[in-house]
Structure formats: C-alpha cells, structure tokens
Description:
Largest sheet: 5 strands, mixed
Number of strands: 7
Distance between the termini: 8 Å
Mean pLDDT: 83
Helix content: 25-40%
Oligomer: single chain
Shape: globular
Strand order of the largest sheet: 3-4-5-6-7
Low-confidence stretches: none
Structural class: alpha+beta
Radius of gyration: 15 Å
Order of helices and strands: HEEHEEHEEE
Strand content: 25-35%
Amino acid sequence: MNDILERAILLVTEAGSYICQSARACDQPNLEYMHKSSIGDLVTSVDLDVQNRLSKVLLELLPNSHILGEEAKSPDSDLGGIVWILDPVDGTTNLVHGLPYVAISLALYDSGLRALGLTHCAYSKNKIRWGYNRCSAPR
C-alpha cells in the first residue's frame, strides 16, 4: 500500500503542476469552459486532460481497477472491486475565474471499503492531505 500511496502522491503533485501551467498558458481568467449539467457546473479542457492523464496511469498502477471520474461521460458508479474515485479539478469555477483555490481529489476503494484518500491543493506545492486504511488495502 505504501508504494501505491507514494505513487498517488507523485501523480497528483504532477497533475497540480500541470493545472497551474495550463492556467498560466490560458492567460487566466480567460480560460474557456463549457457547462455540464447546469449553469454553475463547469468543465474545462484542463479538467478533461487531467482526468485522462491520471486515469491512464492509475489503471496501469492497478490494472484490475476502474475509474469513477467526475468528468466521465457515463460514470461507472459501481464501488465493487478496486475503484479509483477522481475529481481532477476540484474547484473548476475558481480555475475559470483565476482564483488559486483548486485541488485534485483522489480516493481508492477496494470492495466498497475506503483504502486511500488524498487531496492536493494545486497552487501550493506542499499542501497534500492523505490517509489510508491498512485493513482494506488492495492486494
């Protein structure tokens, strides 16, 4: 489990750097966005890129797992087996408006039990909060 935790921390840290670089490249606060389910539910290309990048690597890390991601077109809500739960840009509205309050949220469940959870504040290099449950770590 420590290897998975260490890799997850590295992945979300890299994703945080990517979010910050993408926001600067898009000349905040002019980042283009689309509405999802309502006028206040936004998604950007950064959300989609981060979800795609993280999903690919997380599935390589645990090949028997699947992803429940906020930006999935048809989210798989089954928590059976090994499941990564991902919000690639938690705070998209802040990102769109150029506010530095954006996080990546990632959890790992095994057979419906929480095994790992972490949140990384993208604009703060050292702000990662994490925890794991040794009893429910994937094997």
